[in-house]
Amino acid sequence: MTEAILLVGGKGTRLRPLTVHTPKPMVPAAGVPFLTHQLARARAAGVEHIVLATSYLAEVFEPYFGDGSALGLHLEYVTEKEPLGTGGAIRNVASRLRSAPGDPVLIFNGDILTGLDIRALVDTHRTSGADVSLHLTRVEDPRAFGLVPTDDTGRVTAFLEKPQTPEEIVTDQINAGAYVFNRSVIDAIPAGRPVSVERETFPGLLADGAHLQGMVDSTYWLDLGTPQAFVRGSADLVLGRAPSPAVPGRCGDRLVLETAEVAPDAKLTGGTVVGRTARIGAGAEVDGSTVLDGAVVEPGARVRDSLIGSGARIGARTVLDGAVIGDGAVIGADNELRAGIRIWCGAAIPPGTVRFSSDQ
Fold first, then answer.
1. How far is the C-alpha of 210 from the C-alpha of 24, rounded, in Å?
2. Where is the Mannose-1-phosphate guanyltransferase C-terminal domain (predicted)?
């Protein structure tokens, strides 16, 4: 099978405070950095050579994954000196590719959790004779996405900006963030400047008469760009709703990693993950949440659909519902944090002082 490019250079601004110290693809999901799931699924589909296009906190990737041999891969790393956008990042790694001009190259966005049939996408590309093939998925409400209509043969007919009125919603198909490019198309992307594949490369190819093919695959798909989506994606991996050969254990209601401590009467449900050296106290209830390495949930706390950062501490009887707690933060006993509230890394909230929610 073909080689691949993984775009992992984004700053993950929408995921802060999770990405203050960690690039988005390295935030743990179901017990391992999210990027591990993408690499493992690519390898399972027959990919052997992957180039990682890095930028933000680029120095953390290679020490963790090395040359990729532990995953049965050959990994290479290319770091952008200045942000180049999706198309610019793809062009920036072209020199590391081994493909001939007519060969297909897989390209993945580093923040998409998907059950995409990778082999089927490559087969569609080859049989259709396309210059570029796109994974498309259908969504119930496409207003937050750019639309990608296709004809009866699956050939892309347009790239439409986010619709503003019902009349503009001409399809429920959206760009799902995985592509197959002919190597020659990659080499034709302008070098040394920012380029967006969504706004420049794809519309330009279409205008020039190139063949862009869409393949609709509406299996599991989730954009992990927000903390709430990231928590949900991790839980879905543990529950087995999202496929990955990299989950370090059996699928089920909970995933407790080695050296974690969980009180016998604590209740863990909904795909909850408890990281290494983390502790869950007596009578605590944790549902659909991620508790990262070294974090502590004290007795009687109730945590739902939340993420607790590395080394953070949640006080006794405190309630978290849809909250994100940054690394090393300390939430005192008897607080209540709900509805998307985010607590910054290292922050300290005294006992019994907070009874509010926030969507900021």
1. 33
2. 252-335
CA dihedral 283→269→304→10, nearest 10 degrees, is 130
CA atoms of 135 and 151, how far apart (whole Å): 15
Q: What is the pLDDT of residue 314?
A: 98
Q: How far is CA 199 from CA 170, 184, 205, 272, in A?
A: 19, 19, 11, 38
Res 360: pLDDT: 40
Compute CA distances 2 → 43, 106, 110, 180, 355, whole Å.
11, 7, 18, 9, 53
3-state DSSP of 243-288: CCCCCCCCCCCEEECCCCEECCCCEEECCEEECCCCEECCCCEEEC
Integer angstrom CA distances of residue 34 from 25, 114, 188, 261, 268: 5, 12, 31, 23, 21
> In sequence order, what are the beta bridge partners of 7?
53, 109
Look at the alpha carbons of 233, 236, 242, 247 in this order and tell me if their dihedral is positive or negative. positive
User: Would you say 257 and 234 are in contact if contact means Cβ atoms under 8 Å apart?
Assistant: no
- Report whether 344 contacts 360 (CB < 8 A): no
The residues assigned a catalytic role are 162
Q: What is the DSSP letter of 124?
A: H
Look at residue 11 in the predicted model and tell me its pLDDT: 79
The SS3 of residue 228 is helix
C-alpha–C-alpha distance, residues 340 and 322, integer Å: 5
For residue 118, report the phi and psi dihedrals to the nearest 5 degrees: -65, -40
| Opening angle at CA 120, ends 52 and 247, nearest 5 | 55
Which of these, 300, 309, 308, 304, lies nearest to 327 by C-alpha position?
309
Ranges under pLDDT 50 in the chain: 359-360
Kindly state the helix (H) or strand (E) to which residue 343 belongs, with its residue range.
strand 342-343
Position 359 scores a pLDDT of 45
- Token readout for 311 is 């080394």
Q: What is the pTM of this model?
A: 0.90
pLDDT the model gives residue 52: 95
Task: Write down the mean pLDDT value for the chain.
Answer: 92
